Amino acid sequence: MLAVPEMGLQGLYIGSSPERSPIPSPPGSPRTQESCGIAPLTPSQSPKPEARAPQQASFSVVVAIDFGTTSSGYAFSFASDPEAIHMMRKWEGGDPGVAHQKTPTCLLLTPEGAFHSFGYTARDYYHDLDPEEARDWLYFEKFKMKIHSATDLTLKTQLEAVNGKKMPALQVFAHALRFFKEHALQELREQCPSLPEKDTVRWVLTVPAIWKQPAKQFMREAAYLAGLVSRDTAEQLLIALEPEAASVYCRKLRLHQLLDLSCRAPGSGRLGERRSIDSSFRQAREQLRRSRHSRTFMVESGVGELWAELQAGDRYVVADCGGGTVDLTVHQLEQPHGTLKELYKASGGPYGAVGVDLAFEQLLGRIFGVDFIATFKRQRPAAWVDLTIAFEARKRTAGPHRAGALNISLPFSFIDFYRKQRGHNVETALRRSSVNFVKWSSQGMLRMTCEAMNELFQPTVRGIIQHIEALLARPEVQGVKLLFLVGGFAESAVLQHAVQAALGPRGLRVVVPHDVGLTILKGAVLFGQAPGVVRVRRSPLTYGVGVLNRFVDGRHPPDKLLVRDGRRWCTDVFERFVAAEQSVALGEEVRRSYCPARPGQRRVLINLYCCAAEDARFITDPGVRKCGALNLELEPADGGPDAAGAPPGRREIRAAMQFGDTEIKVTAVDVSTNRSVRASIDFLSN
């Protein structure tokens, strides 16, 4: 049948061609036995979705930026040697005993809002400011999660600095990305002076897989503002999903680069103390070496030894446990080329390491008063940052088998401010508190038992395990052999022990890469070199448009009836482009044709709708919401008939949408001239 987008009755040309042949409805759309007989803006699905190989931009080097909640960094590799990954230089400053291949996601702006510094430099400078002066500076930390949690994210969304002042979020992110861009390009110029500067870099930005389309578009807009690429060279920027990047990297690893938590030595609590997975697979590896097929697969696909052990069709889970979120993805290994197929849509939630920080803040509120902590954060923001840094250092040492208490330094300004506000000292507050597992040490520090520290982890750790268990219960995920634990939070011995204790008895092997905190960054570089490695993804939502279909008595609700020019229409019909959890191949296209209403029309704007359900019938159904708009910008028509003999001014614009990439993409062409039409999907203007 012929379906008409709803905006057709509000200004788009409606023709009258009763002899027009029917156009089939897409699967899942309401059907009738005859054509409606109208021809405006007519969506028509291809008989079968067509797959087209993605066009690859030319580049000499891939630079990936892992923009994390708590820490960030970049790495790069040259197209001439794609697997030789160069990590960024060591950062100045930092914490004792911590490898500085990343820097804290901290941004410092002057009181006037100009960029001052990022990372350790920003944190240390802010620390050294006079308390009164610091109140005027704009210091941002852990701000990435604000983009995920914002339900009405737009280009005008504001972020709040620790002193309470606000700044457009887009500018904050652009400042940070510009910092990495300048650092990376400077390092590239020093390493390769002959490298041309124009269009030579393919940039990759990492985002959580559970981020929705508005958040992904927001990162792209920030990259435009930062000057990484322009809108005219948008293809030089890729958005990489963090657990996917980790999966791409893990498939390259050798056995000695992985740790199997089931092989942990009794009583050990730290990552470096566990035996390598290599020992438990020595016999299997020897068998693989004798297998000609396995050797051939390893060479042809470039996968590591562990992956050669897996057979075609084997499944595994990647749990990316970062600072802000836990991000789960399920992949199936495909032979002979080692490509990856997503088996279930990305899932997860806000169960990152910052949850432990929040639990510590709540503990301080129980001891010193929630109102005091809020006042201290507002009036002594730099000192609050010092306190969180002190806690972070002790948090990293927590382990399930650790013996002895932990001391956490309180800044002098905290002690002094509390005495002035409350009239007694912090030691008195601890004695009066109902919290009996935190004491005041003779060294002037908070002294916390190991059990108390581990308890701060439990709400976040339980959330992670519950999400993994819920995922493993899905029928699409049956037969999983491995769980890769990656991300910065995966370095925690508390988390590792809890995940192994919960999932190990189920026969699931929990595996951790040696460089677990850099897995996503390195994988993003490899993804940038070969973005086609993830061949099939699952759509997280159902997407479509609202259309008018011919009204059918008994099938359509009476309240949807619209009579116009003697014709009976059913309004608000949800015409589906792709269904939630539907497998979509990379490059696969969903095509629709649209006709402008007026001969001189320069723009066509079509609302997009989405929902979690697969079977929504109308755009007014519960859970269906407007999520964006398809925008087609038209060049002036020539005015003559097109190649098919259509009357002047009657143009067909054919749009092709791709749902199998990390972002939803659209291209369009003017059928009469075969010229490209500027097409975009805007998810940020609702």
TrEMBL record:
* UniProt cross-references to InterPro entries, sorted A to Z: ATPase_NBD
Q: Where are the stretches annotated Disordered?
A: 12-53
Entry superkingdom: Eukaryota
Q: Does the keyword Transport apply?
A: no
Gene3D superfamilies reported for this sequence: 3.30.420.40, Actin, Chain A, domain 4
State the UniProt keywords alphabetically. Answer: Stress response
The keyword Lipoprotein appears for this protein: no
- Under which name does UniProt file this protein? Heat shock protein family A (Hsp70) member 12B
